[in-house]
Write a structure and sequence with these properties.
The complex is a heterodimer of chains A (320) and B (505).
Chain A lengths: L1 H20 L8 E5 L6 H17 L3 E5 L6 H7 L8 E7 L1 H8 L10 E17 L7 H10 L5 E5 L4 H13 L4 E5 L2 H9 L5 E5 H6 L4 E6 L24 E9 L4 H15 L2 H9 L3 E5 L1 H22 L2 H4 L1
Parallel strand pairs in A: 1-2, 1-3, 5-6, 5-7
Antiparallel strand pairs in A: 3-9, 4-7, 4-8, 4-9, 4-10
Helix pairs in contact in A: 2-9
Chain B lengths: L1 H13 L2 H19 L5 H8 L8 H26 L10 H10 L3 H33 L5 H17 L5 H15 L2 E2 L6 E2 L13 H19 L18 H23 L4 H16 L12 H23 L6 H12 L8 H4 L1 H22 L3 H7 L4 H20 L2 H19 L5 H23 L6 H4 L1 H15 L4 H13 L6
The chains are: A alpha/beta (320), B mainly alpha (505).
């Protein structure tokens, strides 16, 4: 028995240098904190990635839900977890930029995190109810100019991607819309289909799933989307307007760099799989293969754009 | 046939082993809480809700629905054998059921209650199947103003039928609305009444609230009462009613089913009201009204059918408009949201498997209940003998574990205990729980729809009058509020109230 102990001790000492050279990560399951409800956009992407990530990492990838306060509850928790790389979280841009600016009582800042990967985004599109007096963006602008403030335009949340898309659109075109805040895409979809609001700025996923019942005028993508082939982009109509919500996974910034790299490679490996891309496109997403560096660049450029909008519209005044 | 293919879809859902299992568990639990006096389906559903998070939504709803209609079966057993209503809806069954048991006819009484419930359940499911989908299409015409007025009307009807004073019910409703404003304002994103607690950002959780109000409070309240359990056990035989029993009960069952179904659609304690109304109608139509109360089978068949049919009817507003009509349905609505299903008119088309799966599960569940309640009646009689000193601490433990397992949050446990104490005190002073629970659930929806309406109309409150559907709701509501002031109607309401003297909605 004593001998056995010695053998283990020797083995342990011998394996020490190995530990230093090869990264011994991950050894246990990775927890993924989902800031929204099951069935939302973040969830769909996470579930689609799950099998590939598990294969790549060789450990279970467990999705937990911490919905609340528009994501802030989850992110406040994520900012405080043990930074060992075993806990990562989903996010949405612009939410993680805007919330620290506008919400009190939240315990995270945008730069508490490092984005590991942006895996997809949904361009935001403009749609109107069936039978609305405008059936192109130009007619929509003309109509809204002729009737300032009377066109009701829905979006999910205030200080959200939809809200800022609406603000930017109003700024670019000089129209005045009546922004109606909904709590989720589903009730907004019902209200538009029932004709209770005139228009919405909403995700491409909603446009794809209800394109028969509403009229999609334009979409904020760089090129036409396969699932919405007859819908022009704002760019085609001469507008440099690419509103979108981007999503992916992030970790606290204090996670060791090599562990971050390992996770990044797992996400990139997953999102570059053609099956994953096909699945996401089918549902109206635009799959994206962005690692730490590209994601950081995107985050910074978005933050700059949003800050300009906030100043132009003087948005910080009422909240603070 | 469109409906046949939908039913086939539903059958596919329910015939999966896991759904069969959960359907069985649901009706079993339902019968159990129905049999046990002092424990209602509301408390049971609240207790079991956290345990459904790990199964698909349809499985969860199948089980929770099973508890609801299962309790209606179980309630009659206690009424007939012990003369204590196992369930508020079975109060009236005591009158003739217990008399029948004393005369040695407990068997046929239990038998006709189960068969009547089965027939009524089937009729109301067919009604749900035929009425809900077309109604859901119509529901698209409901915009924010219509929703707001409808919810307001619903709550006013509930308050109008409150068993105590209208004022107390109104107070509970307003208190519930106040609680529902805690958390992040969904429109502007500001925090309200959270006192800096991140846990309260999303408002007071539905589950801690209902577990406190129904689970904890009921346990505390029951500790005070010694529940008598001398059971008429020796005479339970001949469960199959004879030909004469059938002849006497056939029309009461049919009338009770139709009546119960339509009362079920309306807001309020439908199972209770429908069973009382059915009893009153049967007495009025009977050739021998003087014999009611001495053990006539019609007095069991009618009400027991009616309270079962009412449970089916209550699902219609839930599936078509996403509006709860009583506390059980309110909790089910909460379950929808927890499982990521947005309630509303799109539910039947977007989640066809959920709707049709639940409907088909009710067919199967009713058949299971028939088996559970007739041959196994001896088992339930045994259950009645479980000592409460063991049962109640267990329930309390389940409440604590259940709430903690939600978010691992001690704040929520404190909330639950707080609601428990509040619920107990409120009961002592005869305040009703239903308006409070309903307000907590629909408060955010009401606020949201009110504000959406006003944003759409640019601040003009006339939007509630200029929309015809909304105007109709407002008119009915005003009529209801004014009516108690008219002496003649006021008296009628008093009488209706006395009938609805059930402790739980």
């Amino acid at each position: 028995m004593k001998n056995l102990k010695w053998i283990f001790a020797v083995l342990a000492i011998l394996s020490l240098p190995l530990n230093v050279v090869a990264l011994d990560f991950p050894k246990g399951s990775i927890n993924y904190m989902n800031p929204f409800n099951p069935g939302g956009e973040v969830d769909i992407a996470a579930r689609a990635m799950q099998p590939y990530l598990e294969k790549n990492l060789g450990v279970p990838f467990v999705i937990n839900y911490f919905p609340g306060a528009g994501g802030a509850l989850c992110w406040s928790k994520l900012a405080a977890v043990k930074p060992d790389g075993y806990t990562v979280g989903g996010f949405s841009i612009p939410h993680i930029i805007l919330q620290p600016m506008f919400m009190k009582d939240i315990a995270f800042k945008t730069d508490d995190f490092v984005i590991l990967a942006i895996v997809e985004y949904t361009p935001i599109g403009l749609a109107v109810k069936k039978g609305f007096k405008a059936s192109t963006v130009k007619e929509f602008i003309d109509y809204a100019k002729a009737n300032p403030g009377t066109v009701s335009c829905g979006g999910v949340g205030k200080f959200s991607g939809h809200h800022f898309a609406t603000l930017q659109f109003m700024k670019m075109t000089g129209v005045k819309l009546n922004y109606v805040t909904f709590t989720g895409t589903a009730p907004m979809q019902t209200a538009l289909m029932g004709g209770h609001i005139d228009a919405v700025f909403s995700n491409s996923t909603m446009m794809v799933s209800s394109k028969e019942e509403i009229k999609v005028l334009a979409i904020g993508a760089e090129k036409r989307m396969a699932q919405l082939s007859d819908v022009p982009t704002f760019k085609e109509l001469g507008m440099e307007f690419y509103p979108r919500i981007a999503r992916g996974a992030m970790a606290p910034k204090t996670v060791p760099r090599d562990i971050m790299k390992r996770l990044e490679s797992a996400f990139l490996d997953t999102t570059s799989k053609p099956e994953f891309k096909a699945k996401m496109e089918q549902a109206g997403f635009v799959p994206q293969v962005w690692g730490i560096a590209e994601s950081q660049k995107y985050l910074e450029s978005e933050a700059k754009l949003l800050n300009k909008l906030i100043q132009d519209f003087d948005l910080l005044q009422p909240a603070k | 046939m469109d409906i046949l293919s939908h039913m086939a879809l539903g059958a596919q859902v329910i015939l999966q082993p896991i759904n069969l299992l959960f359907c069985f568990l649901g009706v079993l639990m339902g019968t159990l809480v129905g049999v046990l006096p002092g424990l209602g389906p509301t408390a049971a559903i609240a207790l079991l809700l956290p345990n459904t998070f790990h199964v698909p939504p349809v499985t969860a709803i199948i089980m929770l629905a099973g508890i609801y209609y299962g309790a209606m079966y179980g309630g009659s057993t206690t009424s007939i054998l012990v003369n204590i209503p196992g369930e508020a809806a079975s109060v009236i069954t005591c009158l003739d059921g217990y008399q029948m048991a004393l005369k040695g006819r407990a068997g046929p009484a239990l038998g006709i209650a189960a068969f009547g419930s089965f027939i009524a359940g089937t009729i109301s499911i067919i009604g749900l199947m035929l009425v809900a989908p077309p109604l859901a299409k119509f529901a698209l015409a409901f915009g924010p103003p219509e929703y707001f007025s409808l919810m307001l009307l619903g709550i006013i009807i509930l308050i109008y039928l409150a068993s105590g004073s209208i004022l107390k019910a109104l107070m509970m409703f307003v208190f519930g609305l106040l609680i529902s404003t805690i958390g992040m304002d969904t429109i502007s994103g500001t925090q309200r009444l959270t006192f800096g607690l991140l846990e309260l950002c999303d408002g007071v959780g539905l589950i801690p609230a209902i577990m406190g109000l129904f689970g904890v409070a009921e346990v505390i309240a029951n500790v005070e009462q010694a529940i008598r359990t001398d059971v008429v056990t020796s005479k339970v035989k001949n469960l199959l009613p004879n030909l004469r029993d059938w002849k006497d009960s056939f029309w009461p069952i049919i009338r009770g089913s139709v009546l119960g179904f339509f009362i079920g659609i309306l807001p309020g304690p439908a199972p209770v009201i429908s069973s009382f109304s059915s009893y009153a109608i049967e007495k009025k139509l009977s050739k021998h009204p003087e014999k009611f109360g001495t053990g006539v089978i019609e007095g069991v068949a009618g009400p027991e059918s009616a309270n079962n049919a009412a449970t089916g009817g209550a699902f219609i507003p839930l599936f078509t408009l996403g509006i709860p009509v009583n506390s059980v349905i309110a909790i089910l609505l909460g379950a929808f949201m927890i499982h990521g299903i947005q309630p509303g008119p799109m539910i039947i088309t977007k989640h066809a498997d959920l709707f049709w799966g639940t409907v088909m599960s009710m067919y199967l569940g009713n058949a299971m209940l028939l088996i559970l309640n007739l041959p196994l009646i001896g088992l339930w009689v045994q259950v009645l003998k479980v000592p409460y000193p063991i049962l109640f601490p267990l329930i309390l433990l389940f409440c604590l574990v259940g709430v903690y397992s939600l978010n691992y949050s001690l704040v929520e446990i404190a909330l639950m205990i707080g609601f428990g104490v509040f619920g107990y005190l409120a009961r002592k002073f005869q305040f009703e729980m239903a308006p409070l629970v309903l307000a907590i659930v629909i408060g955010p929806m009401m606020e949201n729809n009110l504000r959406l309406s006003l944003v759409i109309s640019q601040g003009d409150p006339m939007i509630f009058i200029t929309h015809p559907i909304s105007a109709a709701f407002i008119f009915v509501m005003l009529a209801l509020l004014i009516s108690p002031l008219v002496p003649w109607i006021g008296k009628k309401r008093k009488r209706l109230q006395e009938k609805v003297e059930g402790e739980e909605v």
